[in-house]
Amino acid sequence: MLSTLQILPVRIMDHYQAISVLMHELHMHEHSLFDKTANWSDIETSYMRHVMAMQEENDGLCLVAYINSTPVGFIFAYVEEQDDSRIEIHEGKELYVSDGYVAEEYRRLGIYSMMNEILEKHFVEKGIKRMIRFTLVNNTRMRQFLENEGYGVTRLQYEKWLY
């Protein structure tokens, strides 16, 4: 199956429908982990506008994994410039990995790992030294992946929903 795998950079606006379908699947998965995740139908237009802008204005990269020409996963990241309000010692640009997903039937084949490796290599070659990612606390598979890839937890976000 992986012999037909291709991982290609795409311009999101040129592949809007395919990326939106994968984003919808990502949001459904996130909703299964956290019931406060917005419905994709409520945010699709604004979120897709946001990622397209980040790709165009902030040196974003969207990689799509194809098997037999069918998109089965993606990863998207863009560069952020720190301002002087940050407390870390690192200065300069950092990479924010905003979204990533592999369809359930194609998981555990190393596809996400391959996309992540290409993404990291691309931005390391551009001089990026710090990469930031968020995941839900109960997304244990992603947390394990990130820890295996050398990412470390630096902050915990606490929430309280006031009704």
Describe the protein's architecture and organization.
The chain has a single domain (2-148), classed as Gcn5-related N-acetyltransferase (GNAT) (Aminopeptidase, 3-Layer(aba) Sandwich), CATH 3.40.630. The chain is 36% helix and 23% strand. The protein contains 4 helices and 5 strands, in the order E-H-H-E-E-E-H-E-H. The chain has helices spanning 16-33, 40-57, 111-124, 140-148; strands at residues 5-10, 61-67, 70-81, 93-102, 131-133. The chain has a 5-stranded mixed sheet, with helices on both faces. Helix 3 links the parallel strand 4 (93-102) and strand 5. The model has no long low-confidence stretch (mean pLDDT 90).
Search tags:
5 strands; alpha+beta; five-stranded mixed β-sheet; 163 residues; Aminopeptidase
- Rg to the nearest angstrom? 16 Å
Which structural class is indicated by helix and strand composition?
alpha+beta
User: Got a strand count?
Assistant: 5
The CATH architecture name reads 3-Layer(aba) Sandwich
The number of helical runs is: 4
User: What summary fits the major beta sheet?
Assistant: 5 strands, mixed
**Mean pLDDT across residues:** 90
The fourth-level CATH homologous superfamily is Gcn5-related N-acetyltransferase (GNAT)
- Biggest sheet: strands side by side, in what order? 1-2-3-4-5
Tell me the CATH topology: Aminopeptidase
State the shape.
Answer: globular
Text of the CATH class: Alpha Beta
What is the chains' assembly state?
single chain
Beta content: 15-25%
Task: Give the count of structural domains.
Answer: 1
Helical residues, percent: 25-40%
- Which consecutive residue ranges, at least 5 long each, have pLDDT under 50? none
Order of helices and strands: EHHEEEHEH
Distance between the termini: 49 Å
